[in-house]
């Protein structure tokens, strides 16, 4: 009998709801912010040397939370320089939130924003059709490579757009995270429907090695409180389970045996740690900075 499980991405509203709850319950953005504060300045130290304009491309920029923090670091390093910030983002909802955020921010003088409502692949196809090869001083792809069909080809394309001092920054779940444990074991049973694939920093390192590219890795510790996932019927717990499995209504549509095994796995040390009566999923991230 065909499984009634469907991909979470087939319901964009529920996907966004679960994603926002994930951000609320996890230290995802705090971990990235710490990296931006402490380590990003060294990464961008020479991207704009001798330039009057710095071109930044945000691929899968979402609602812009991290983009604006990255831009403020580039501005601090290169005061007075014009920054062109192009955003490639397929979700109209996320773009409108991004625009609101820009409208409310006060420290964006000299930064010009252009939004493109399209996927990374659509951007690449459009540029090729227009025979354009615009070069960029800084390209970042934060938590978006899961939604790309051909990751090595996408990496090759965006890497080819770097200026000689440019950097490509990628953030993904770490090969040492609970995601790796969960998805390597159960990923083949989830209904991805070709809408997303699991990839971690371990997979990405292998791809970059085989492409002969130079890169640096930075591990970022992060966790997510998934205690509510173990409370039968808890709405937030069900949303988080959807996010963890990329499955729409996992709690209601998963075969009982798969659900039982997965709930057991989520409590194990490979995925989570138990602290003060709560269950914290290992959401460790990895930043990969690729050289031109």
Automatic annotation (TrEMBL):
Any one of the GO BP annotations: methylation
Which residues are involved in binding substrate? Answer: 28, 283
Query: S-adenosyl-L-methionine among the record's keywords?
Result: yes
| One Pfam short name | Methyltransf_23
Database matches in InterPro entries: HHMT-like, SAM-dependent_MTases_sf
Q: Which GO terms describe its molecular function?
A: N-methyltransferase activity
What Gene3D superfamilies does the entry give?
Answer: Vaccinia Virus protein VP39
The protein's UniProt keywords, in alphabetical order, are:
Methyltransferase, S-adenosyl-L-methionine, Transferase
Which protein is depicted? Histamine N-methyltransferase
On subunit structure and binding partners, the annotation says:
Monomer.
